[in-house]
């Protein structure tokens, strides 16, 4: 099937999925969503453990450069797709440099007179952040309660411990205040789910392509959740983008491709991310216009 035909089929699927969702109550809040013109993407994150859809194989332990590259490509893909909805996305650098953002969502700050508890919390925060694909200088931010969280390969979810330096505020309050501080109509949190599947593989040997799923949450300065897409609770589920590029797979693992064809693998991530962003924003658009 050609890319155009696949795109049309996927877009139709996105509209159908949005229609099914809106039949039980839309995941967009009207008319509030119509007032959104400026957006800050304050989270784009994904579990760094990337599983094989055909078995127990997986790949993880990515270097920081690759994780940032993959996440930044996905961030840019969503920023571009949001423009289709008439939303202006402020620069990522503006978010990363914001003092409130760093204070509320970064690791606990350590000062000269900080005690062992603060130092331990800072260390755990850094460890947590290192287990995710994240765009440079941005932090993974939890949205859902623990019972709605997708299990993380490290054994804990983003909700396992309090983030930031103010543990008395809940995340929705922090996000609403951040939206106000950034002077945007809404902050957006994008969650990616990366997997790989056989392209020309037999019993886990051959080539593999990357797949990506995604969902979006958005909060306004008035603490109104204007986009509340359902999370991906099972790895590799949902409507997904796929890459055209492939890498070598041996025994259900793409470790060889990771080692010998890093740029090709990053490009495959990018292709899957861009398709996923298109599908997800199509679903948001369908819900907005229904």
Question: SSE layout and pairings?
Answer:
Blueprint: H1 3-23, E1 38-47, E2 50-51, E3 58-59, H2 64-84, E4 88-89, H3 92-97, H4 99-105, H5 116-130, E5 132-134, H6 171-181, E6 186-198, E7 206-219, E8 225-228, E9 241-242, E10 247-249, H7 255-260, H8 262-289
Helix pairs in contact: 1-8, 2-8
Describe this structure in words.
The chain has 290 residues and is of the alpha+beta class. It has one domain. It is 40% helix and 19% strand. It contains eight helices and ten strands. The strands form two sheets. Strands 1, 4, 5, 6, 7, 8, 9 and 10 form an eight-stranded mixed β-sheet that branches. It has a two-stranded antiparallel ribbon with strand order 2-3. Helix 2 packs parallel to helix 8 (262-289). The longest helix is centred in the last third of the chain and has 28 residues, at 262-289. The chain is globular and about 55 Å long. The two termini are 29 Å apart. The model is unreliable at 1-12, 17-24, 145-149 and 155-162 (pLDDT under 50).
In short, what is this structure?
This protein has 8 helices and 10 strands. With 290 residues, it is α+β, with helices and mostly antiparallel strands. It starts with a helix and ends with a helix.
């Amino acid at each position: 099937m050609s890319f155009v035909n696949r795109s049309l089929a996927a877009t139709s699927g996105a509209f159908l999925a949005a229609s099914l969702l809106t039949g039980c109550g839309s995941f967009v809040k009207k008319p509030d969503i119509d007032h959104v013109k400026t957006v800050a993407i304050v989270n784009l994150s994904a579990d760094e453990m990337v599983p094989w859809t055909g078995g127990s194989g997986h790949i993880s332990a990515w270097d920081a450069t690759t994780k940032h590259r993959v996440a930044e490509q996905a961030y840019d893909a969503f920023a571009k797709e949001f423009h289709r909805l008439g939303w202006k996305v402020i620069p990522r650098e503006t978010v990363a440099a914001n003092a409130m953002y760093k204070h509320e969502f970064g690791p606990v700050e350590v000062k000269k007179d900080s005690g062992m508890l603060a130092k331990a919390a800072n260390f755990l925060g850094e460890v947590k952040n290192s287990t995710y694909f994240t765009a440079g200088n941005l932090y993974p931010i939890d949205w859902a309660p623990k019972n709605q969280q997708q299990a993380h390969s490290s054994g804990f979810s983003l909700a396992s411990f309090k983030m930031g330096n103010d543990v008395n505020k809940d995340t929705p309050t922090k996000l609403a205040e951040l939206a106000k501080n950034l002077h945007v109509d809404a902050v957006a949190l994008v969650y990616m789910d990366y997997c790989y599947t056989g392209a020309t593989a037999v019993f886990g040997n051959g080539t593999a392509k990357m797949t990506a799923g995604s969902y979006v949450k958005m909060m306004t300065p008035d603490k109104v959740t204007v986009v509340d897409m359902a999370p991906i609770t099972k790895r590799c589920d949902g409507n997904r983008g796929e890459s055209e590029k492939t890498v070598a797979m041996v025994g259900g693992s793409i470790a060889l491709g990771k080692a010998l064809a890093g740029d090709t693998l990053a490009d495959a991530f990018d292709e899957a991310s861009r398709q996923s962003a298109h599908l997800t924003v199509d679903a948001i658009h369908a819900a907005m216009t229904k």
